[in-house]
Every structure is written in structure tokens, then in C-alpha cells.
Specification:
The protein is of the alpha/beta class and 348 residues long. It folds into two domains: 4-31 and 78-195, no CATH class; 41-75 and 214-347, Rossmann fold, CATH 3.40.50. 32% of the residues lie in helices and 27% in strands. It is built from twelve helices and 17 strands. The chain has helices at 4-14, 22-25, 61-69, 129-133, 135-146, 164-173, 198-212, 239-250, 262-269, 284-287, 308-316, 336-347; strands at 28-33, 36-40, 72-76, 79-90, 93-96, 99-102, 118-125, 154-157, 178-179, 183-192, 220-225, 253-255, 272-278, 295-300, 319-324, 326-328, 331-333. Strands 1, 4, 5, 6, 7, 8, 9 and 10 form an eight-stranded mixed β-sheet that branches. Strands 12-11-13-14-15 form a five-stranded parallel β-sheet, sandwiched between helices. The longest helix has 15 residues, at 198-212. It is globular, with a radius of gyration of 21 Å.
Length: 348
């Protein structure tokens, strides 16, 4: 027999009623870390870079440009623990009497499901739609939620098959979750952890300590993390030219995360003065272990400029730099002279 909750939510969606957040579904919440006023530092960039921006993502152009320009303070919201009751997890979506929250893309466009066959009394979930969509958001946000001390019961997740890197990160961070679907929960604990408050900063510092561990770190010029054609398309046509210049003229180490074990990435990035590469999830490998006084340099296509990684560097008090290339995400180039000059700004 078909289950009414998913169909009820689908009807609401057809009539364009808004998707509910986990916060809206909660029956109880409590503060874990208070709100923080954070200074948004100006990014490091050469004259004329802002004028090249033709398109942005994760926000309108004026919002992205303001975040890159910096020079203002921002209120970062508190971290809250959430308690949801009478919850059904079906095909990556949480359904309650208050509405539904999507954790990952559904396998079926029309939610025709039967009532959950499994039941768990109490559990905790730390994943997010963003983390299931982008590896970088999983590492920078979902893993930090995994370090929260609150919650109750076993930890569960909808993602069944972690990658080798994800499995290694979970082992090093001592976090684990049991894959489930088609399950009813009497109580499900979750978190509202959007704000980059001081508590989240402290968890990021703890995360670095856990990942670096007893490794003897030696400082060096930097790491260039290749992107190639991995992930969503942002194809730097002269990526290998830039990598060679950074290696020969600046002493950078060049690493391809798609073919390198996590131990190699941690060893290289934990001592880097600069982590650089095409803006994307592969840079998260460097961000979670680079030293507190390190810098992040992103190379971006003109039609897809974002500031999402700068949010993390602002929180940790690290420097952020960017270069906007000529061309769009399907194929763009950057001038070596501009990359070198931007590095000079960071070293000044």
C-alpha cells in the first residue's frame, strides 16, 4: 500500500510550497555554540579582477563581490542541536508531520513508496544535501558536524558508498555512520550548523589536529592541487603550464588528488604556506590541514566565480586570494604573470 507522507509532500511541492528546513521540522532545539560577530577580511587580488566577473554561483553577483571585497563584520549564527520526532527516511528524504527535508537527490521523481519496513528508536544524522552533492562541502561542513558532541543514539547516513578518501577521513576523524533507508525513527537528532561561529572554528582546529596527528610537518612554499576534468566542469586549459611554473619558479609541490592517497595529501598540505588550484572541492583536502597562517589561492572561470571557500578561511583567520581567468567553465586560461603577482601580494 502506498504511503501518504511522501505523496502529501509531493502535492505541496507541485503547488510550490517551500521546502522545509531541518530547523522547521524540529520539535525541540538547544544551543551548542553561541553566535559570533566575524570580520570578513578583504581577499588578495590584482586590479581588474572584479571587472572580469561575468557570472556567479551560490549567490547573486553583488553578494559574491561583497564577500570577496570584504572589509566588514558579519553576524555568524549559533549552532543548534535539533530533535525531530516521528520521522520517516525514504529515498534520501526525511518526512515528518511538519513537512519534508531533502538530504540527497531522490532516485524516483514521483515519490511512490510503501511505509518504512525498518524502525530505529533513536539516532543522529549529520549529513546535508550540500555535502552529498559536493565532496568539498562534505569535508568542510558535514565532517565538522560529525565532531559535535551532542546528539544521541547511533549515527546514520543515507549515502551508502563512501569513496576511498571519505573512508580514510572518517577513520582518521573517528567518525562513522551506518547507511540506512526505508527507516522510521521515533527520535532523530540533527544540527543547524550554518553559522561560522567560534565553536565551529574550534572544531576545525581539532579536525586539523586529528588529521595531522603525530606527523612531523616541515614548512614549504606551497601545493598546487590539480583539478583536471574531475567534478563539475571548470576546465583550466593551461593548468599543467601553471603547475610547472609553480613547481620550477616557486618551489610548489604539484599533486593530483584523484590518484594520490590521503596520506600524501596530508603530508604535503599540512606544511604548505599556500594551497592553490582551480576553485573546487579538491582544494578542501588542503584547507582542512594547512597551517593557521597559510593562504588559499583560487583560480576561477569568469562565468562561475564563487566565494564559498572564503567563508572557511575568514573563519580560521587565513588569507584568501583569487585570479579570474579568460573564458568560461568549459575552457579558460589564466596568465602566469597574474598568478605570480597574486602570490607576491600574499608574501608582501
Amino acid at each position: 500500500m502506498l504511503y501518504w507522507r511522501p505523496l502529501h509532500h509531493h502535492v505541496h511541492k507541485v503547488f510550490r510550497r517551500p521546502q522545509r528546513s531541518l530547523q522547521a521540522l524540529a520539535t525541540e532545539r538547544w544551543m551548542i555554540s553561541p553566535a559570533t560577530t566575524r570580520y570578513i577580511a578583504p581577499a588578495y587580488f590584482l586590479p581588474g579582477q572584479m571587472e572580469r566577473i561575468r557570472g556567479t554561483e551560490f549567490g547573486p553577483p553583488e553578494e559574491i563581490i561583497r564577500g570577496l571585497a570584504g572589509g566588514y563584520t558579519s553576524e555568524q549564527s549559533a549552532t543548534w542541536g535539533l530533535r525531530l520526532t516521528d520521522v520517516d527516511l525514504l529515498d534520501g528524504t526525511l518526512y515528518t508531520s511538519k513537512g519534508a527535508a531533502l538530504l540527497r537527490s531522490r532516485a524516483s521523481s514521483i515519490p511512490l513508496y510503501t511505509r518504512p519496513s525498518a524502525a530505529i528508536g533513536r539516532a543522529t544524522i549529520t549529513e546535508s544535501w550540500m555535502g552529498n552533492r559536493w565532496f568539498g562541502m562534505w569535508l568542510l561542513d558535514d565532517c565538522l558536524r560529525g565532531l559535535l558532541p551532542e546528539g544521541d543514539g547511533s549515527v546514520v547516513r543515507t549515502r551508502a558508498r563512501p569513496t576511498d578518501h571519505q573512508r580514510d577521513y572518517e577513520h582518521r576523524l573517528r567518525i562513522s555512520a551506518t547507511p540506512v533507508d526505508g527507516t522510521h525513527f521515533d527520535e532523530l537528532f540533527a544540527f543547524d550548523d550554518e553559522g561560522h561561529n567560534d565553536g565551529k572554528r574550534d572544531r576545525a582546529e581539532r579536525m586539523r589536529r586529528l588529521l595531522v596527528g603525530p606527523l612531523s610537518v616541515s614548512r614549504h612554499a606551497g601545493v598546487f592541487l590539480l583539478r583536471g576534468k574531475s567534478g563539475e566542469r571548470r576546465f583550466l586549459l593551461n593548468e599543467h603550464e601553471i603547475a610547472e611554473k609553480l613547481s620550477v619558479e616557486r618551489g610548489f609541490r604539484v599533486i593530483d588528488p584523484t590518484t594520490s592517497p590521503l596520506s600524501t595529501l596530508i603530508e604535503a598540505c599540512a606544511g604548505a604556506r599556500v594551497v592553490a588550484g582551480v576553485e573546487g572541492s579538491q582544494l578542501a583536502h588542503g584547507m582542512v590541514v594547512m597551517p593557521p597562517d597559510a593562504s588559499l589561492l583560487t583560480i576561477q572561470p569568469s562565468d562561475r566565480v564563487v566565494s564559498v571557500l572564503k567563508v572557511s578561511t575568514d573563519r580560521q583567520g587565513q588569507r584568501y586570494a583569487f585570479v579570474v581567468g579568460d573564458g568560461g567553465r568549459d575552457g579558460f586560461r589564466v596568465r602566469w604573470g597574474e598568478v605570480a603577482a597574486t602570490l607576491d601580494l600574499l608574501e608582501a
